[in-house]
Amino acid sequence: MFYLLVYDVVDDYIERRAPWRAEHLALAQAAHARGELVMGGALADPADQALLLFRGDSPAVAERFVAKDPYVRNGLVKSWRVRPWTIVIGAPT
Q1: pTM of the model
Q2: Do 23 and 70 form a contact (C-beta atoms < 8 A)?
Q3: What is the pLDDT of residues 9-25, one digit of tens each?
């Protein structure tokens, strides 16, 4: 099953993320290597949200990521939510 993690980020997210970017990317790369994180990235114009697609048996796979994410721990993420996502076309194998 797939789960979409949606981050609503602070207005100055791009300017403030530098101190935690390497840790955030390492966390994402490790989740990707384990096959949990399928893809992720930030929306642009405006840069007000980020979307991360997880694969797992429950939303816990995304929730574990949130619990460790330095962007969340350091206030760059105003709110977040996990939604089950049913992929109709182009589902990753």
Answers
A1: 0.93
A2: yes
A3: 999 999 999 999 999 99
